[in-house]
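S.,

Sequence below, as promised.
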Amino acid sequence: MMKKVGIYVFTDMVKQRLTKKREGYFDGQNYIGLRYIVSQINKKKYNITYVSKDTINTVDFVLVSLTSYYDILNLINELYGKKRTCKIIAGGAGLSNVDILRDIVDVAVVGRGENIINQILDGQTEVPGVWYRDTNYNFKSKIAIRKLEDYISIDDPILGQYHEQSIGCKRKCYFCEYSWKNKYKTKTDIYHSGVADRETMFEEVDWTAYKNKDLVTAVDGVNEKTRKIINKPILNQTIINKINEIYEQPKDYLSLKLYCLLGYPFESDFHPEELLDTIMSCCRKHKNRLNIVIVSPHFMPMPFTPMECEPVNPINFREKIKRYDFTKYQKGNIKVYWPWSLASSPINALEATILHRGTKDDAPMIKKILCSSRYQRLNTQRKIDVLYKAFGGLLGRVDSVADYIERVHPTDGAKKKYQKAVLAE
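The prediction came back faster than expected:
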C-alpha cells in the first residue's frame, strides 16, 4: 500500500509575507527548495498531497518548509501541543534552531536537503546531518549542517525554469547567516542571488543589466567605520566610483535598491550623512539620472555568524528615519529616498532572536505571548517592553547559540576580530 506524504500549508498565520498565493504555497519563490525535493520523491511508493494543521493525521509524513522565523512561529502556533499520528519532517533556510522544535518535529534537516528525502521516508535513521527525535532528542551527538550536493535545477509549472548558479557568499560579512552557514561555491565565479538574480555585491553592480527594474545591492553601513567593523569594508571612494559609472551608460534613467542595515549593537543614533553626502557628491548637470531607494532591515544576531552572541539593539531606527529631513538629498540628477516604510522596527529582530535562541521549554510561552491577538494589537514600544519582560535573558549578549550544531565555518577568530574592531572605534 502506498504511503501518503503531505506538503504542509500554513492556514492560521500570525506572521505572513502578504505575497501571492500559488497552488497551495504562499510564495512560490521561497519554496523552490521544497518543490525540488518533492520532485525527487519516489512516486511509485508515495502519494503526494497538501495538508494543513487540521488534516495532518490523514497522511503518514508531513513536509514542512521553514524559510524564515515567520514559519517557525507559525508552526509553533499551529502544531505545538497538537496530537498527531504522522511523522513531521522539517527543513529549509529558516531552520537554524532545532531545539525549539524538539516537541513538534520528528526529523530536522539543517542546511541542504537534496538527495536524501527517499532515505528519510523509507525509514533510514542514520542519514548524515539529519536530526532524529527518536534517537537524538537531547542532542547526545552534534548535528552537522548539510552541505551542497547538487545545484538545484528545476522546470516548474508555477515558477518556470530555475537553475541554481551559486551558494554562499565569498564576502563573509559578520552578520550574514547565509555566508557562514554555507561554503561558497559557484559555477561561474560570480555571486548569484537566487531566482530573480538581480542582487549582486556593490562592487559588481552592472549598470548595463538594468531593464526597468531596480538593480539590487547592499552597503549595510552608514559610514566606513561601520562597514569596517562588520567586515564589509566598502570605501566611500568605491561608492563614488561605482555611481560615476552611470555617466557612461546609454540609458538616461537607472534605479538602484540599496540595502543598509541599521541597529547594530554599537549604534546609538541615526547619522546617515556620510553615506548620503558621498552619494550626492556624484551629482552633475547631466541627462543621465539615478534614483536610489534605501531599504533598512534591523540587525539580527543570526546563528552561525561571528555576531550570533551579540545583543539586539532595541532602538527604533524606523521612527528616526521617519523624522529625518531628506529634502536636500532629493535634488539634482541623483536622488536618494530612504522611506521609513521600507525600514524595520526592532520587533522582527527581537522575535527572531527569541526563536533562534530559545529551547523547547520556551515554546509554550512563545505560543502564549507572540501568537496571541492581544500581543499583535500592541504598538511597537509596548511589544518591546513585553518581549524584554518575558524573554530578556535571550535578548542580551549570550555565551553561545545552538552549540549542538557543528559549524561549517568556525567563528571564534572572526568573533575576536569583530570585538577588537568595535573596541578600536
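The first strand starts at residue 3 and ends at 8.

Coffee later?
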